[in-house]
Design a protein that fits this description.
The chain is α+β, with helices and mostly antiparallel strands. Helices cover 39% and strands 14% of the residues. Helix 2 crosses helix 5. Bound molecules: FE2/S2 (inorganic) cluster (FES) (2 copies). The site of one FE2/S2 (inorganic) cluster has 12 residues, from loops.
């Protein structure tokens, strides 16, 4: 039995400690906003926040997530989350949507570190999440919009 702290709540779970965090989130906690794609740490679709940093949940044994603060797209809240969600909608970013939870969580980490990023910081910060629909330009515009709003909020 392990205890995971996810989206602000503790969850007691019977699980093999070597199980990737991704499968615990999706199958035991029903948090299907975290996506499975490559499964080998290459595409970023499974990104979640662990202690405020991005982590690839397909490659993180759940034992390593014990005692940490895990946030998935379902539990991502606050002024920055609101700014990002609004920007994503207004810039019409989403195509198939599969990579977008990871894009938004990754953008949040980027903006916390660099509240006024330029193109190169955005490219570097977002490089870990691939989008097969090619939404990169729209993601960039949404990050600029969210950055403008977020600066006014804080
Ligand atoms: S599914 Fe985890 S990096 Fe691709
Ligand atoms: S929106 Fe389809 S993979 Fe990114």
């Amino acid at each position: 039995m392990i205890t995971l702290h996810v989206n602000g709540a503790d969850h007691q779970l019977e699980v093999d400690p070597e199980t990737p965090l991704l499968w615990v989130l999706r199958e035991q906690l029903g948090l299907t906003g975290t996506k499975y794609c490559c499964g080998i740490g290459e595409c970023g679709a499974c990104t979640v926040l662990v202690n405020g940093r991005t982590a690839l949940s397909c490659s993180l044994p759940v034992r390593e997530a014990v005692g940490r603060d895990i946030v998935t797209i379902e539990g991502f809240q606050g002024p920055l989350a609101e700014a990002l969600r609004r920007a994503w909608l207004e810039q019409d970013v989403v195509q198939c949507g599969y990579c977008q939870p990871a894009q938004i969580l990754t953008a949040a980490v980027l903006l916390r570190k660099n509240p006024q990023p330029d193109d190169s910081l955005i490219d570097a910060g977002m490089a870990g999440v691939l989008c097969r629909c090619g939404t990169y330009q729209a993601v960039r515009q949404a990050i600029y919009q969210a950055a403008r709003e977020y600066v006014l909020m804080v």
